[in-house]
């Protein structure tokens, strides 16, 4: 299973002609690119399901919501999708996007609600070693590097400046991302690159799932 050159070519041309008349004229090319994306992500989902329990694939619409945006171009310059994990006991989600020069693979916790964010921060501060061990995992580091995410500049309310893992406690997001060149995206090895990345993030997902489905005493909350 491969991403086709025609898919990248369509997105390159769309970036240069981001208007409704051009898109309408080239809609068959868009539908072909969308089908390629759906087939690729569907194959990735099937591979993940061999070692994880995953749920549905969502390929996002290419149409932009421009109602509250200064940028009125009607279409995204990329195709992207998410694969969710199955059941309330499994947290974390896989992300995949195709964009010329900026394709990416990632996953994690991009917008945790305030209850989950507080639970994560408390776990990282009260039990600092497990997350540090996970973040230093060789496979995860080799593939993704360091954990990403925006954070606050000051110490969050309820914590002290000398708290363990302060850099992580300050974060509001906890995710990983890796980008790929167009040459890599079009290579025959790209499918394995994507699935290898998703598999490397799995131990992190399992740890965070345990944190977010238990209280500070380790008792289940689901």
Secondary-structure blueprint of this entry?
Blueprint lengths: L4 H12 L3 H6 L1 H22 L5 E6 L19 E7 L7 E6 L4 E7 L4 H13 L1 H8 L2 H6 L22 H4 L4 E7 L1 H4 L4 H23 L10
Antiparallel strand pairs: 1-2, 2-3, 3-4, 4-5
Helix pairs in contact: 1-3, 3-9, 4-5
The CATH architecture term is 2-Layer Sandwich
* N- and C-termini, Cα separation: 38 Å
CATH class: Alpha Beta
Cα shape: globular
The overall pLDDT, averaged over residues, is 96
Classification by helices and strands: alpha+beta
- Radius of gyration from CA coordinates: 19 Å
Number of continuous helical runs = 9
> How many E strands?
5
SS strand fraction? 5-15%
- Spatial ordering of strands, largest sheet: 1-2-3-4-5
H and E order: HHHEEEEHHHHEHH
Tell me roughly what share of residues is in helical segments. Answer: 40-55%
Q: The CATH topology is what?
A: BirA Bifunctional Protein, domain 2
Pick out the low-confidence regions.
none
The overall number of domains is 1
Short description:
This protein is an alpha+beta fold and 222 residues long. It has nine helices and five strands.
Tags for this model:
9 helices; globular; 15% strand; 222 residues; alpha+beta
């Amino acid at each position: 299973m491969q991403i086709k050159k025609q898919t990248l070519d369509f997105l390159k041309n769309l970036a240069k002609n981001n208007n409704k008349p051009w898109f309408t004229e080239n809609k068959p090319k868009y539908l072909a690119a969308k089908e390629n994306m759906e087939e690729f992500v569907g194959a990735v989902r099937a591979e993940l399901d061999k070692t994880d329990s995953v749920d549905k694939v969502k390929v996002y619409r290419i149409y932009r919501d421009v109602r509250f945006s200064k940028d009125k171009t009607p279409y995204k310059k990329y195709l992207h999708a998410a694969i969710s994990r199955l059941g309330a006991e499994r947290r974390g989600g896989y992300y995949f996007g195709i964009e010329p020069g900026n394709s990416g693979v990632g996953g994690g916790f991009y917008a945790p609600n305030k209850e989950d964010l507080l639970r994560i921060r408390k776990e990282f501060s009260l039990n600092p070693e497990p997350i540090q061990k996970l973040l230093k995992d060789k496979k995860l580091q080799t593939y993704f590097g360091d954990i990403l995410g925006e954070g606050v500049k000051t110490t969050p309310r309820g914590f002290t400046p000398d708290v363990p893992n302060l850099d992580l406690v300050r974060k509001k997001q906890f995710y990983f991302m890796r980008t790929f060149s167009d040459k890599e995206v079009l290579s025959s090895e790209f499918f394995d690159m994507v699935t290898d990345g998703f598999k490397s993030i799995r131990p992190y997902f399992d740890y965070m799932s345990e944190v977010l489905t238990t209280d500070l005493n380790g008792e289940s909350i689901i």
